[in-house]
Amino acid sequence: MKVAIVHYWLVGMRGGEKVLEALCEIYPEADIYTHVVDLDNISDTLKKHTIRATFISKLPKAKKWYQKYLPLMPIALEQLNLTQYDLVFSSESGPSKGVITAPGSTHICYCHSPMRYVWDMYYDYLESAGFFTRLMMRPILHYMRIWDFVSAARVDHFIANSKFVASRIDKFYRREAKVIHPPVSVEDFTANETKEDYYLVIGQLVGYKRADLAVSAFNRIGKKLVVIGEGEKYEQLCTMANDNVRILGRQPFSEIKKHYANAKALIFPGVEDFGIVPLEATASATPVIAYAQGGALETIKDGVTGLFFYEQTDEALIDAVQRFESQADQFQTKAMVEWADTFNKARFIDEICQYVNNLNRP
Question: Which of 16, 74, 82 is CA-nearest to residue 43?
């Protein structure tokens, strides 16, 4: 079987690229197609494959400005000739599923998320943009929304990375999706029962991840908080943080791993499609205090690996921290590590293989 994998862009190694790596392990001879590739920032595993980029990669400063070329990506995808492939996997979060495949081929879309800025977070992005950007966004994203819905019909089968994403696929595309959670490299983390006196936030510092909520709440209660990450909200968080809050910015994996292991608990205040960060914390035997929406409801076992708060307010988060401190002894290392291990890569590979094999049975 000749296999192609279409991934939105390859400029770093995050959760979507870890899924791509696992698919490459299943299909070691697969060709990879993408809009933009930065070979300096992807793994050796991906570099072993033939990687072909669309014409987006030839545009000025494409490795940095790739998202600015979003309106051209539908056209770029349709220029890819994939008719020689029997199986096409598209890895969707940005535009990738809109390729045209052969009539006898099978197109499976592994959907990390329908494009947030086109659908459910459209108004959030619109409100945060400047005046001239808003003028351009309205017609461009109107066109992208129509294309995104129409291109969903080109997919034979959808796989969602969570029940939360499956519900959004049903809402926006009117399609059913099989849920297969993404792989988590739980073996890279070390469980530590001895904790230090600080809480932790890890992730991109962008609006919807709500690191500002954690900083605001911890400013009020005076407990120590460490924030690791980079993004558009970095300067704002540095400005608002009191002395008890440390904004560390981007850190190497060795430091991230150490902070996961030593933190009293991870604060997870945003709404994520799935959320690998809570499971990395759980693999480190660090409980998670999370907002009870999105993928967190599937990755956190209330009272076993963490607990929830139900409003994105300072008061609700402060109350959750206080509840956690009153019952911190109930979170057992063995139970947390075992739960995290159920999301490992071997499980993902097995589920994908079973799914594809079942499709091919008469």
Answer: 16
For the record, the structure tokens of 69 come out as 């070329």
**Tokens 């599923």 belong to residue:** 97
Return d(Cα 215, Cα 217) in angstroms, integer. Answer: 6
Residue 195 in tokens = 């904790």
Q: Are residues 321 and 354 in the same domain?
A: no
Burial of 268 (0-12, 13-18, 19+ CB in 10 A): buried
User: Cα 88–16–91 angle (5° rounding)?
Assistant: 20
Locate 288 and state its tokens.
Answer: 């998670």
DSSP one-letter string for 51-88: EEE-GGGGSTTHHHHGGGGGGGHHHHHHT---TT-SEE
**CA separation for the pair 248, 239 (Å, rounded):** 13
Query: Are 204 and 336 found together in one domain?
Result: yes
Structural domain of 234: 186-341
Is residue 244 domain-shared with residue 152, that is, in the same domain? no
Q: Among 26, 324, 346, which residue's Cα sits nearest to residue 185?
A: 346
Q: Which of 59, 52, 96, 102 is nearest to 74 (CA)?
A: 96
CATH number at residue 106: 3.40.50.2000
Query: pTM here?
Result: 0.89
Query: What is the rounded radius of gyration, in angstroms, for the C-alpha atoms of the chain?
Result: 21
Strand-pair partners of 227? 201, 247
pLDDT digits (tens, 9 = 90+) for 106-141: 999 999 999 887 888 766 777 777 777 778 888 888
Query: For the chain, what is the domain count?
Result: 2
Q: Over the stretch 225-268, which tens digit does the pLDDT of each residue have?
A: 999 999 889 999 999 999 999 999 899 999 999 999 999 999 99
Indicate whether 36 and 148 sit together in one domain.
yes
Same domain assignment for residues 253 and 176 = no
Regarding whether 191 and 309 lie in a shared domain, the answer is: yes
Residues 207 and 63 in one domain: no
Q: Which amino acid is at 18?
A: K
